[in-house]
Amino acid sequence: MNILILGSGGREHALAWAVLQNPKCDRLVVAPGNAGIHAIADCADLDISDGGAVAEFVEEEAIDFVIVGPEAPLAAGVADRLRDAGVLVFGPSKAAAQLEASKAFTKQICDAAGAPTAAYGHFTDADAARAYVSKMGAPIVVKADGLAAGKGVIIAETVAEAHGAIDDMFGGAFGGAGAEVVIEEFMTGEEASFFVLCDGEHVVPIGTAQDHKRVGDGDTGPNTGGMGAYSPAPVLTDAIAERALSEIVRPTMAEMAKRGMPYQGVLYVGLMIEDGAPRLVEYNVRFGDPECQVLMMRLGAQALDVMHAAAEGRLETAQVNWADDHALCVVMAADGYPADYDKGAVIGGLDRMPETSQEMVFHAGTALKDGAVTASGGRVLNVTARGETLAQAAERAYAMVDAIDFPGGFCRRDIGWRALK
Ligand code: AMP
Ligand code: GLY
Questions:
Q1: Does the global pTM surpass 0.85?
Q2: Mean pLDDT across the stretch 379-383?
Q3: Lowest mean pLDDT: which of 139-148, 182-191, 243-252?
Q4: In this structure, are 309 and 235 located in the same domain?
Q5: Is 281 in the pocket of ligand 1 (CB under 6 A)?
Q6: What is the mean pLDDT of the chain?
Q7: Among 6, 71, 322, 358, which residue's Cβ finds the most Cβ atoms within 10 Å?
Q8: Ligand 2 pocket: which of 12, 282, 284 to mutate (most atoms <8 Å of CB)?
């Protein structure tokens, strides 16, 4: 099979790494890729949100299967454009991608499916939104409806703060994403992520993970895209996963099919767990980043088989064989991230890193400059290791971190603390 992966981050490096281990992969192209991906696969310079350009490339290069990494091309309808051209794709249609691209859509689906989630109101004008907050009180969560690169969620501790967030959103702080606003009850509990593959009808769980959103040790400082992750998530026990499937995921899939927008691809189910009961925080229509890195490390070659089965509607008979182990990923970021950060630092020590099924440095924001790997993004490297215990995985990952020379880089030293304590 000739395979094309769309994307350029640590998630796509991990997907590429897993796909390449499967003998069914004859040739792998990643567009646009990064320095780490370049070392293991062909990279193509494509505008991945332009469905026509991707379809043309697929035809020219005789690609048999396309795996879409990030949400933006999905929300732009790239999977639809490819399917219309008869190409096999892993990733939902534009209509189904609303599960990430519109928070109001997701809340309406949850209502119709009876899936437990936070109580909410959906508003298209500031006065009604402010009045709702005044009635409900704080803490309360104010969300821009659309895609806002992870920044459109404000957890307001006071009514005044919530009113400020509402004014900002309707004032255009998040562009079109904030033209509609969802206001939610603040849920307490422990968060964990549940990953399932869907083929429009059937659902196969492929693992659990937790990430660390705050930039600083002890979960302090501003929110980021994720400073590290580990799998499995101990809080997401088999019993809770079963409840999440039967109360949240399967009813959602049935509702999507009923509306003529069956969901095919990976569904990232963000859960809040309290007193043994899961409630939905959010759906994403892609793998999490860096959650994908720990999932791929544990799944290896079979990742391709199950993604292929999802795309072909064969999940009813698919299964995942789990090693009874743990994986942990430490994100190395550029100083300043998540605000303005430095670019261009030359990273040393990578050629001494192990590249095994136990230890891998996945690249996120890197580029090649005169043959050297340089930092080109906020999150730069995803140092990932497996172990029989989470402690062993952490020890291995941090030993690699300490052997990497990244001037102007930093990482959290406490990834996994909740599960390790
Ligand atoms: P979202 O983009 O919807 O996942 O929100 C980003 C983060 O905000 C989540 O991962 C949670 O940590 C937090 N969050 C979102 N909605 C709620 C809620 N209703 N109650 C508590 N925390 C929330
Ligand atoms: N790590 C969180 C996300 O990918 O959205």
A1: yes
A2: 97
A3: 139-148
A4: yes
A5: yes
A6: 95
A7: 6
A8: 284
